[in-house]
Write a structure and sequence with these properties.
With about 55 residues, the protein is mainly α. Helices cover about 25% and strands about 0% of the residues. The chain contains 1 helix and no strands.
């Protein structure tokens, strides 16, 4: 008998543990989308004044 909810060696979580927020699959935000949003937000706050670099 195999364990369908085996702990993943990378995440240290079982497959069924990953969605602990109780949201439907369609309502969950993918991790790569979250990272992209974070990077874009950081970019907006950067100092883009190139004159000060000279």
């Amino acid at each position: 008998m195999t364990d369908d909810n085996k702990t993943d060696s990378t995440t240290k979580m079982a497959r069924k543990d990953i969605n602990q927020d109780g949201l439907d699959q369609k309502d969950q935000q993918r991790t790569d989308d979250s990272v992209l949003d974070m990077m874009q937000g950081m970019h907006e706050h950067e100092d883009h004044n190139e004159e000060s670099d000279k």
